[in-house]
Amino acid sequence: MEVDQTPEEELQAAIETRQEFRDLLKVPAWDRLVRIAEEQARGRVADVLMQATGLDSLIKVEYEKGIRAGILSVVQLPALIIESLDNDIEALSAQLEDQTDGD
Predict the structure, then answer these.
(1) How far apart are CA 86 and CA 29, in angstroms?
(2) Does residue 8 lie in a domain region?
(3) Domain residues for 26?
(4) Is residue 82 included in any domain, yes or no?
(5) pLDDT class of 99 with cuts at 50, 70, 90
(6) Is residue 39 part of a domain?
């Protein structure tokens, strides 16, 4: 959100951004990306569950955990953004209602 936006402009921008992310989730390529990411994450399970036998293997396990978490977070990010925007939209709508009631 830009600093110089009015609450109405902020609300409109949030609604538009939310719709863009909703549209993203409907694109067939998104489903393909999710399947690829999940397969990549599944392929790393053995490395993540590997018993560390020393510092080098411990570093490798932690590295693989980070890679796997990053892959899975990409898949979850649009839904989290939509949820956050839902909250923003609700708060901005309430703020505008309060301003309208107060006028």
Answers:
(1) 24
(2) no
(3) 14-102
(4) yes
(5) confident
(6) yes
Cα distances (Å, whole numbers) of residue 56 to 42, 63, 88: 22, 11, 45
Euclidean distance between CA atoms 51 and 28, whole angstroms: 38
CB 11 within 8 A of CB 93: yes
Number of domains in the chain: 1
* pTM recorded for the entire structure: 0.78
Does a structural domain hold residue 41?
Answer: yes
Phi, psi of 52 (to 5 degrees): -75, 130
Distance CA 87, CA 82 (A): 9
DSSP 14-48: HHHHHHHHHHHHHSHHHHHHHHHHHHHHHHTHHHH
- Name 92's Cβ contacts closer than 8 Å, sequence gap at least 6: 7, 10, 11, 14
Which residues, including other chains, have CB under 8 Å from residue 98's CB and lie 6 or more apart? Answer: none
pLDDT digits (tens, 9 = 90+) for 39-51: 999 999 998 888 9
- Report residue 11 CA to chain centroid gap: 20
Q: Would you state the structure tokens that stand for residue 82, as one six-digit string?
A: 């939509």
